[in-house]
Amino acid sequence: MTFKKLLFSAVTAGLVMTGLTATANASGAGPIPKMDWSFDGIFGSFDRGALKRGTQVYFEVCAGCHSARLVAYRNLMDIGFTEAEAKELAGEYEVQDGPDDEGEMFMRPAILADRFVPPYANDNAARASNNGALPPDLSLMIKARKGGASYMYAVLTDYHEEAPEGIELADGMYYNGVFPGNQIAMPPPIDDDSVEYADGTKATKDQIAKDVSVFLTWTASPELEERKRMGVKVMVFLFFLTVLMYALKRKIWARVH
Fold first, then answer.
1. What is the pTM of this model?
2. Spatial CB neighbours of 110, under 8 Å, sequence gap ≥ 6
3. pLDDT tens digits for 120-144?
4. Taking a C-beta distance cutoff of 8 angstroms, is the pair 220, 142 a contact?
């Protein structure tokens, strides 16, 4: 490659990076703090206590506006809930079923096979109840946002009572240091003692944000632990296969020499 081509490539790369930086700055999204999670790393797994607390936070705080349509009540048994507990939780909601013998639709209590019942009948109803904003479904939110659980934690904890000088918030918007554009329609959803944990854990704002972030990581990747276990098994298999093939190679070539 000639010097001119190298120079052109360097300049082009610099312009691209400058453009990306300008775009990031224009979005107003602040840095996402790097956090340590129990499920990080090849041997990581979900903290069952945090999962159950996060489930409580979702149903008591988040489920009033946000759906999680991809999760069924029976899935809760995978994270430590008993069948009776999952049935009791499902029974607090109603779903439309039918038609009955007379051709009419009817309402019945949710059962384990049902997906989490959404808070609104449709998107228009959701917008009408939230000043025109549509609360997103949270099933895959952790996968949909760069930073995953750390991003979710940061959004929940980085609200500010007032916007910085020179920034004017639109009607019904709140200032958030991490959310792109810094303006978010969702009011601060949590604070200290927003819930009373069933296991007695002190419900600080920080703890609540961590727990629900863990829960939403599980809703997005319920297979995470099984996938990691399978990955470890594959790596162990490949290691022993490599040793075996090396020994076989030495045995074969020993005859040649």
1. 0.83
2. 73, 90, 91, 92, 93, 94, 95, 117
3. 999 999 999 998 999 999 999 999 9
4. yes
